[in-house]
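Anyone able to model this chain together with nicotinamide-adenine-dinucleotide?
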Amino acid sequence: MTNEEKIIDVKKIVEERKETLKSKIDTLKAKNIFPKLCVIVANNEEASRSYVKNKRKVCEELGIIYEDYFLKENVTNDDILKLISSLNNDNSVHGILVQLPLFKHLNENVILEKISEKKDVDGLTINNLGKLFISNNYILPCTPKGIISILESVGETFEGKHAVIVGRSNIVGKPIAQLLLNKNCTVTICHSKTKQLEKYTKDADILVVAAGIPHMITRDMVKENSTIIDVGINRVNGKIIGDVDTESVLSVAKFVTKVPGGVGLTTVLSLAENIIELIEKE
Ligand code: NAD
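re: yes, here you go
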C-alpha cells in the first residue's frame, strides 16, 4: 500500500452518505416536512464562527433550513434557557444545537440539559448519553458517530481489538470510548494525567486522538498496521493541523485520517443525518 492509499478518503465517504441523506430529505419534503436546525452561539471564539459557518453551508447544500442565534457576552443562563424553551416548543424546529464552548459565566450542563431529548441533535443530553451507555442508542454525538462511519468504511473490525482513546471530553473521548466498547473493543482511555502515554498508544489497533495538542502523536508512538483517527483541530501559524503527525505515522500505520479533510467532514454530516433521524423517530 502506498502512503497515499493509507490516507482515508473521508471526502468520498461523506459524498456517499450525502446522497442517501438527500433522498431522505426529499421524501420528507414531499410530505410537507421541512427539516430545520437552530444553532445557538454564546462565545466570541473565532473557531466557533468557522464551525457554524460550515454547518450552515452543509445544511443549505442538503436543503435543511438553518437558523443561528449569536448571543452577546451579557447574555444570562436564564436568557438561553428561555430561548431553548421556545425552540423546544416550536414545531417547525427539529434540531437544537448549542455550540461549545460557552461564555465562562454560563452553566453548560444546565443549558445542554434544557434541550428536549427529541431535538438533541448533538446527542449530548444526559438521557441521550445514558442511552449510549446501555447500548440503546437514541441519537449519537456527531463526532463519535462520524468516527465509527470512517472506521466501518475502511472495513475495520472491532471485536477483540485494542482501541485507545487520547482525550476524555464529553463530546468526543468518552462517547467514542463507549461506542467502541459497545462494538466489543477492549478500550483504554488516556488523558492529561496519564503517565507514559506512548505505552498505551503503541499497543493500539485503533487509535483515536482528541487532545488538542498539535502533532503530539509521532511514528515511535504507534503500532504497526494500526488505524489512526485524528480528531484534533489546532491552528498553528495560520494553518490547521491535527494531533497526529500524519507524515511520520504513515510509514507504520495501516490507515490514517488527515487534518483538515478528515473527521471534521463527518462531524458536520452526522449532524445533518441526526436532524433527519430525529424527525424519523417522531
Ligand atoms: P477538550 O479540548 O475538551 O479536552 C482535551 C482532552 O485531551 C482532555 O480530556 C485532556 O485530558 C486530554 N489531554 C490533554 N493533554 C493531554 C496529554 N498530554 N495526553 C493525553 N491527553 C491529554 O477535548 P475535545 O473537545 O474532545 O477536543 C479535542 C480536540 O478535538 C480539539 O483540538 C478540538 O478542536 C478537536 N475537535 C474536533 C472535532 C472534529 O469534528 N474534528 C470535534 C470536536 C473536537
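Residues 143, 166-169, 171-173, 190-192, 194, 197, 210-213, 231-234, 263-264, 267 surround nicotinamide-adenine-dinucleotide (CB under 6 Å).
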